[in-house]
Amino acid sequence: EITSLLSLYDGQFSGEQEIRVNSPFWILNIPSEEMARGLMKRTVCAKSIFELWGHGRSAGELCASLKNYPMEKMLPYLQSDSTYKVHIHTFNKTLTQAQKIKKIDALEFLPFKGKVSLKNPEHIFWILEDYGMDPNNVPEEPFHLYFGRWVHGQRELIESYSVKKRHFIGNTSMDACLSFIMANHGRVKPNDVVYDPFVGTGGLLISSAHFGAYVCGTDIDYNTIHGLGKASRKNQKWRGPDENIRANLRQYGLEKYYLDALVSDSSRPIWRKGMLFDAIITDPPYGIREATRRTGSQKETVKSAERSTENHIFVSSNYHLSDIFFDLLKFAAEYLVMGGRLVYWLPIYRPEYTEEIIPRHPCLKLISNCEQMLSSHTSRRLITMEKVKEFKDQDQNSYLLDGQYMPYRGHNSFREKYFSGVTKRIAKEEKDNQK
Fold it and tell me: What positions does the domain tRNA (guanine(10)-N(2))-methyltransferase TRMT11 N-terminal occupy (predicted)?
């Protein structure tokens, strides 16, 4: 997420930081404080950002680094008519109050002229200490120390967009935190057009609209698109007349960014030719809580026939996971603008996972591949791809020639593998209870 946002705000990791990427504290080069604040208004993974005044591997190195920091950059925040306070944050270690005061007193050589205000200071400074990532092997002295001026912190997005408070939800509405991470991976910006081919209740549209993008989507489920049928909330039997995607966007003051949601099958082409979307951000069904299906004909093997409250009838057939993802990549290759991004979740059976099974397309470059654990044996990977090559007709079925297509076929049985672990766990619990 941070890497994607840095590319949006003309920033980068410092050369030194690349060596210590596992540290909880990262050193970034960002052109201005305004851009740093812009980054922090979007991220949900970072907690705070600081203007770094000094750092080192020991207290002595930190002091030397602070003495070398340009005085003209310090002075605006140390004036006699200002107020300030100093925080200490230690990662992987707890200090006593006396230890904290001792460390703050060691910075008395800094020319602070203002008054200390613990409740409402104008300027806040932080000492950050990194004691490593191993809670069972905490060193006496920190591996690295930092001192800087607090610039911005942002964690309100997750709470203000919580699914618990959302008007219209479904069985698989995306968590607000994850939907914002996906929008950041997609580098969504104002006036972009963002599309979700498995839109459901529109949770992913909300995060993109929050960042100023115009949003639209499609879904095969007529009832969900129109807000009909049984409710997903506890103690609520049926959805109300105003429960729909538009109402969700209206709830957050984002209705002006809503283009539309269409009842459509993602496996069937409905769009005119051309590069239409700046980003495609989606969470395809895995076949666990929501069925994987596509429209079929009466001649095909009928999986189910459903009738909605609006007397809308459709016939659906099996839609294998491998086909879902390769159709998605093919669609993104054709309809994304150059440099546009595809962001989606890929379910994985962990004992069989290798990077080779990530679906590929010659027009799309893999940018990132992050894991979210679902259980001991299953997870899902957040895949981000960027369009780097113009789509040509010969790219239409290029994936069929790719040796990676066959290994991913194994994921058509993801549902069975997912529940096999659940069945084994239940059997083990029953066996333990009998003992």
Answer: 20-153
